[in-house]
Amino acid sequence: MIDFAQICEITMLCVFGASWPFNIAKSLRSQTAKGKSVIFEILVILGYCAGLCGKIWDYTQTGILAYSTWFYIADIPMVCIDVGLYVRNTKLDRLRETNLACAAKASAIGPKAYPNGGDTICEHAEIEDLNARIRIVSH
Length: 139
Hints:
Blueprint lengths: L3 H27 L7 H25 L5 H42 L14 H15 L1
Helix pairs in contact: 1-3, 2-3, 3-4
């Protein structure tokens, strides 16, 4: 039988769980890790895991698996997906910063021929490679 405490816990897990798809969608759309905290997300995962361990412990003691266990199991992968997107978006941010720095150097120096055959301090091919990598990862 489900009691009031379980109803409250399931409600909390549902509300938190409903927010993660929006966060994941925003991470996919924005393609940046700026303004996100991976430490916060790791702490959330640890909190969910602690709650799940408590439910498993109760099950080993009583033989009754609480309904809320399934909500912990559903929420943990969503947070893990968002952590994965954080890692991906951090790489995209670094690529963009490298690309901008490279382009700024190239425009500041101007088209200057070098004896080794390079166009500028930042080779045109290197900039195109970075742009292509950003396009591949972002789609």
